[in-house]
From TrEMBL:
EC class: transferase
Reaction equations catalysed: L-aspartate + 2-oxoglutarate = oxaloacetate + L-glutamate
Entry-linked PROSITE patterns: AA_TRANSFER_CLASS_1 (PS00105)
Protein name: Aminotransferase
Keyword list, A-Z: Aminotransferase, Pyridoxal phosphate, Transferase
Pfam families: Aminotran_1_2
SUPFAM superfamilies: PLP-dependent transferases (SSF53383)
Organism: Sulfitobacter litoralis
Protein family membership: Belongs to the class-I pyridoxal-phosphate-dependent aminotransferase family.
Aminotransferase class I/classII large domain: residues covered: 32-372
Keyword Transferase: yes
Record-level GO BP terms: amino acid metabolic process
Cofactor field: pyridoxal 5'-phosphate
EC number: 2.6.1.-
Length: 380
C-alpha cells in the first residue's frame, strides 16, 4: 500500500535526543534533561480536585464542539484581566492543545498549495503540519538584529497567503513588542494574507508582558494552550480566538475532525485558571532558572545568545564550536550527561550551528546541568 506524498513529514530530532537520553538512563547514567520543552510540574492541584469532583457527578461525555461554555467565558475574562481586551466568549474555541488549533486554523484559512510564512528558527511542527495538509511552508530566515523574529521586509515579495508568528517564540524565547507585532499584522493584511499568532508561552514572561494580536486587530487567529503556563501538557487542551465571522466555519470543521476537546481536560483547565498562587510559584522557579542560565551558560563558554524575554529556552549560536550541532549534542550527552537539543529541528539550514537549552525543570537540576556543562567545556 502506498503512502501519500503529504504524509512524508520529517521526524522531530529532539525525540531522538530523548531516546538517546533514555537509553543512557537505562544503562544507569544520571542525565540532566535540558532538551524537553515542557514543565516538570504537573497540573495545578485545584485542577485535579475539580476533575475528581466532576467524575463523581457525571459521565463526562462529549461536550459541544466549541467547548464548555463556562471555560470559553473564563478564557474571555482572562483577556480582560491580562491585556485589558474586551473579548466576546463566542469567539473562543476550545481545542485539543494548540496542536489541534493549528489543524483547525490551517484547514479553515488555506487551500491546497497556499504559502504560509514561518520564522526560522521556529517550532518544527508548524512546517510539518502545513506539509501534511498539502500547504507550503515558507521559511523566513530571521536575524539577530531583529531578535530572531520576522519583520515585514522578510516577506515583502513572497506572495504569502498567511503568516504565523510566535511570541514568545520557541526556541528563542524572544518577543514581539506592540510596534513589531502591529507592523507584521499591517504588512500581512496589506498583502491580503491571514495573520496567525501562536501565544502558547504567554504568562511565562520575565521583564514585560507579552502582547496579544487581539490588542491590535480582531482580524487574526490567536492560538493558545494550557500546556505551558498552566502546566498541563498531557491533558491536550488549548484554545483559539477567531474572527466573529469565522466561528461557524471553525465549529463545523471541529465537529467533524475532533467532535470536541477532551471533556475531562476542559473541566480541569477551567479550575486551573484560578490556581494563580501555584502557577506563580512555578514562575518563580522559571525566573530563578533563567537568571542562573544566563550567567551559567556564559560562564561555561556558551556566550552567543539573546537573553529570553519569555518561555523557558535559551537558543545559543555554537558556530565557534561546531558545524554539526547534532554531533555536539551527542558528545555533550555522552560526556557531560546533559541532554540538549540540536538547532536542526528549528532551522534546517542554520541549525547546524545552534543548540537549544531548556530550563523548565527544577532549579536543582539546572544548577547541576550548568556545572556539568562548565566542566565539559573546560575539558574540550
Ligand atoms: C511554539 C509552540 N507552539 C505549539 C506547541 C504545541 O503545544 P500543545 O499542542 O501542547 O499545546 C509547542 C510545544 O512545545 C510550542 O513550543
Amino acid at each position: 500500500m502506498r503512502n501519500s506524498t503529504r504524509s512524508q513529514v520529517d521526524p522531530f530530532i529532539v525525540m531522538d535526543v530523548m531516546q538517546a537520553a533514555a537509553a543512557a538512563e537505562a544503562e544507569g547514567h544520571h542525565i540532566i534533561h535540558m532538551e524537553v520543552g515542557q514543565p516538570g510540574t504537573g497540573a495545578p492541584k485545584g485542577a485535579s480536585a475539580a476533575l475528581t469532583a466532576a467524575m463523581e457527578q457525571g459521565a463526562l461525555g462529549y461536550t459541544v464542539a466549541l467547548g464548555l461554555p463556562a471555560l470559553r467565558k473564563r478564557i474571555a475574562l482572562m483577556y480582560a484581566e491580562w491585556y485589558n481586551v474586551d473579548l466576546d466568549p463566542s469567539r473562543v474555541v476550545i481545542t485539543s492543545g494548540s496542536s489541534g488549533g493549528f489543524i483547525l486554523t490551517f484547514t479553515s484559512l488555506f487551500d491546497t498549495g497556499d504559502r504560509v510564512g514561518i520564522g526560522a528558527p521556529g517550532y518544527p511542527s508548524y512546517r510539518q503540519i502545513l506539509k501534511a495538509l498539502d500547504l507550503t511552508p515558507v521559511d523566513l530566515p530571521t536575524s539577530i538584529e531583529n531578535r530572531l523574529q520576522p519583520v515585514p521586509s522578510d516577506f515583502a515579495d513572497m506572495d504569502l497567503q498567511g503568516l504565523l508568528v510566535a511570541s514568545p517564540g520557541n526556541p528563542t524565547g524572544t518577543m514581539l513588542d506592540h510596534g513589531a507585532m502591529s507592523a507584521l499584522i499591517d504588512a500581512t493584511q496589506g498583502q491580503g494574507a491571514s495573520f496567525i499568532s501562536d501565544e502558547i508561552y504567554h504568562g511565562i514572561e520575565y521583564e514585560k508582558k507579552a502582547v496579544t494580536a487581539l490588542e491590535i486587530s480582531n482580524d487574526a487567529y490567536v492560538i493558545n494552550s494550557f500546556s505551558k503556563y498552566f502546566s498541563m501538557t498531557g491533558w491536550r487542551v488549548g484554545w483559539m480566538v477567531v474572527p466573529e465571522d469565522h466561528v461557524r466555519v471553525v465549529e463545523r470543521i471541529a465537529q467533524n475532525m475532533f467532535i470536541c476537546a477532551p471533556h475531562a481536560s476542559q473541566v480541569a483547565a477551567l479550575a486551573a485558571m484560578d490556581c494563580t498562587a501555584e502557577l506563580e510559584a512555578n514562575m518563580d522557579v522559571y525566573r530563578a532558572n533563567r537568571a542562573m542560565m544566563i550567567t551559567g551558560l556564559r560562564d561555561a563558554g556558551f556566550t552567543s545568545f539573546a537573553p529570553p524575554d519569555g518561555a523557558f529556552y535559551v537558543y545559543a549560536d555554537v558556530s565557534s564550536l561546531t558545524t554539526d550541532s547534532r554531533e555536539l549534542a551527542r558528545d555533550i550527552l555522552d560526556k557531560a550527561g546533559v541532554a540538549v537539543t540540536p538547532g536542526l529541528d528549528f532551522d534546517p539550514v542554520r541549525g547546524h550551528q545552534t543548540l537549544r537549552f531548556s530550563y523548565a525543570r527544577s532549579t536543582q537540576d539546572i544548577a547541576e546541568g550548568l556545572g556539568r556543562l562548565k566542566a565539559y567545556m573546560a575539558a574540550r
